[in-house]
Write a structure and sequence with these properties.
Radius of gyration of chain A: 24 Å
Oligomer: homodimer
Order of helices and strands of chain A: HHHEEEHEHEEHHEHEEE
Number of helices of chain A: 8
Strand order of the largest sheet of chain A: 4-5-6-9-8-7
Shape of chain A: elongated
CATH topology of the largest domain in chain A: Chorismate lyase
Number of strands of chain A: 10
Largest sheet of chain A: 6 strands, antiparallel
CATH superfamily of the largest domain in chain A: Chorismate lyase-like
Structural class of chain A: alpha+beta
Chain lengths: 262, 262
DNA sequence: CTTGCCCACTCGTCTATACGAGTATGCATG
DNA sequence: CATGCATACTCGTATAGACGAGTGGGCAAG
């Protein structure tokens, strides 16, 4: 247990009314911000800090837990506490559903990830008929049952997004949309072939902390929120033909929209 | 210290390899999800749970800290731990900058909040010239200095959003845009009067955990992420005439966009 | 050289205790 | 009745100790 390089971290201010564990967290945070520790670097161990500050181990752990909650660091059992690297982000532009992007055979996700040089995967594919939730039913116009298409998207082995599409049975049942592989251009291409020419989409965006289930399927580190996006697709007759419910790891995404000023 | 109503919470499973504090958190979470506790309800005190489960206080506190991290509950010193109420959300539609909304005298925020029956406020108004950050400079096209307009928005006394607009000095200096009150229709109306007819906006959206400073200015409860929105306004000549950097309390907002399918 | 074990170091979980500080309530005092 | 204090309850902070479990390096045996 080598002593901490002096000057790396300061001393505590016993006269301060700021709690000791907060002071320690502040100093670590500042050291990270100032670049004393870089992404992926190992922070001093709990034992190091116990010795350096002369406090008990629980106090140090308390400090770490603050930084974890902020998403700044993550602990690895048996190894140490590390500065959390910012993962590469995926940019979603608002024209990502434009018809011209729908021509080729591969899905938008695959094409885009390949172009960005990362390795895309889709798994947990599940297609089945089920009872519509209240919310989905309201959005699709009072349908009882729907076709649900679930899938998880991964980039370089890391899950980044979990999405479920809901479609009214009278549209989707018996079509290729009900097959695991919906064919080139995805379900939007199939919908248009079926006569539902798409007119516009509505997207609702929320951000919140993940549920335990979401932590699991997206393998989220603590302190990482999710972006919850609900998209409704409307055809030219004004009918809602699909609702897509997407939960994204917030640290992996930047959403981008272009709005007319008219 | 009245005993806990039996049946409200279950027992621990000593054979489970799930940590005790997680089991307790699970049971509390489930009880909340099932509606055994409603928004604003007080959960059993730490002492109650210590007695009920026969564990130490730190273990119970550990459970609570999980739920706090999820944004499910919040603790009040001297009172207890409560189920966090879902605050009313503000919906931001993608047409909120349409020209027709810019006619009246009051700001969009005030009009909209009044209509929703809540009491809007704007404070911390600050207008000054300053050095442009790298990011802002890049977005505005390599300007050195900018006019910055900072303000905080509150609904019913609660801060919900903190925004800063940056404008190139050659556009804003000496105009009403540089005054604390930009006049009816806001700075977008002034920009158009100055000959910068607006063509479109670009919005970039991220979600992340707040910095300590953001926790303070937005008075955020723990477990509440922020939505970080960066909007760039372009005039008909393709020039970026304003960058607006907005940090919103994520539990107070739903963003809504409408996209053409073309 | 390879295999396998031991050991040191790491964080994870849990107990027990202590005192501080904010809140609410009831009771005694004025 | 009103004021103010005592008190009990709440969570906040901190200490000290114990054992468990994952990781990785070194060393000894094969």
């Amino acid at each position: 247990m080598s002593p901490l390089p002096s000057g790396l971290l300061g001393d505590l201010d016993p006269t301060s009314d700021r709690a000791v564990f907060r002071q320690i967290a502040d100093q670590l945070r500042e050291a990270i911000d100032r670049g004393r520790f870089h992404e992926g670097d190992k922070l001093p161990s709990e034992a190091d800090l116990v010795e350096h500050y002369g406090v008990s181990r629980m106090t140090v752990r308390n400090s770490f837990s603050i930084l974890q909650g902020e998403g700044l660091v993550h602990a690895e059992h048996g190894k140490g506490v590390f500065v959390r690297p910012r993962p590469p982000v995926r940019r979603l532009a608002s024209d990502r559903f434009a018809r011209r992007h729908r021509e080729q055979g591969k899905s938008a996700f695959i094409v885009e990830a390949d172009a960005a040089g990362s390795h895309p995967q889709v798994d947990s594919l599940e297609v089945k008929e089920e009872k519509a939730s209240t919310d989905v039913s309201a959005r699709l116009g009072s349908v009882r049952r729907v076709l649900a298409r679930r899938r998880r998207y991964l980039l370089d082995g890391r899950p980044v997004e979990f999405a479920t599409s809901y479609l009214p049975l009278d549209i989707a049942r018996g079509t290729q949309i009900a097959e695991p592989n919906p064919g080139p251009g995805g379900i939007y291409a199939r919908l248009e072939e079926l006569g539902h020419r798409l007119n516009h989409f509505e997207e609702e965006i929320r951000a919140r902390m993940p549920s335990p289930a979401e932590v699991k399927t997206l393998r989220l580190a603590s302190g990482v929120p999710v972006i919850h996006l609900i998209r409704t697709a409307f055809d030219t007759e004004g009918r809602a033909v699909e609702v897509c419910d997407t939960v994204m790891a917030a640290d992996a995404y930047v959403l981008s929209y272009q709005l007319p000023a008219t």
